Amino acid sequence: MAMIGKVGPAWRLPGMWLVAAGLGLSMAAGGVQAQGDRGSTIGYTCMGCHGFQGKGSGDIPPLAGVAKEATVGKLLEYKSGALEGTVMNRIAKGYTDEEIQAVAEFFANQ
């Protein structure tokens, strides 16, 4: 019994450290992947109004194939209030400038 109590904590500490280090590396790798997918994740929510693959829907303009800089410019104008829209001002304010860049790149590549 005394040996188990004495060996147990000393034995577990290095193992716990390795588990923690591995978890940290996994989370870091997941964060990189999540950042890379951010544009597509946001983009799929835009398709509810802007049509399948962002190709437009009725009076709502297409986003697919539009130059990244043009989309970024419009979204930043909506975000700042310089350009008025029905819902786009509220939507654009919900995204960081980095997220706007990511979704604009996603649609530019469609």
- What is the CATH top level name? Mainly Alpha
Poorly predicted regions are: 10-35
Biggest sheet statistics: none
Task: Supply the CATH architecture.
Answer: Orthogonal Bundle
Short summary:
The protein has four helices and no strands.
Model description:
- This protein is mostly helical and 110 residues long.
- It has one domain: Cytochrome Bc1 Complex, Chain D, domain 2.
- The protein is built from 4 helices and no strands.
- The protein has helices at residues 2-50, 68-80, 88-93, 97-108.
- Helix 1 (2-50) crosses helix 4 (97-108).
- The longest helix is centred in the N-terminal third of the chain and has 49 residues, at 2-50.
- Mean pLDDT is 79; it is low at 10-35.
Considering the chains and any ligands shown, give keywords for the structure.
single chain, 110 residues, mainly alpha, Cytochrome Bc1 Complex, Chain D, domain 2, 4 helices, globular
Protein topology:
Blueprint: H1 2-50, H2 68-80, H3 88-93, H4 97-108
Helix pairs in contact: 1-4, 2-4
